[in-house]
Design brief:
Helix content: 40-55%
CATH superfamily: lambda repressor-like DNA-binding domains
CATH class: Mainly Alpha
Number of strands: 2
CATH architecture: Orthogonal Bundle
Largest sheet: 2 strands, antiparallel
Length: 79
């Protein structure tokens, strides 16, 4: 069976690229998400962790895109 998985590195690249394309600073995103510090967002941009589904919904809204334009998915045989 071929299964899909989230490509963390490409998802991180999308998070970073979309922030830059929207002329937003990390501080802007931090404030929109209600975070006290930007560390979680930096981890998302580096591909160390993934945002929760709630935070993905907020990011998609901020960026004006669908979640599928943030989350990169690959098939098991694409690894």
């Amino acid at each position: 069976m071929n299964t899909s998985r989230i490509d963390i590195k490409n998802t991180a690249a999308n998070i970073s690229r979309l922030r830059i394309e929207n002329n937003l600073s990390v501080k802007d995103i931090q404030e929109a998400l209600g975070f006290n510090t930007p560390q979680a967002f930096y981890k998302w941009q580096r591909g160390e962790t993934l945002p929760s589904i709630d935070n993905l919904v907020i990011l998609a809204d901020i960026y004006g895109v669908g979640i599928n334009q943030i989350v990169a998915v690959c098939k098991a045989d694409d690894r």
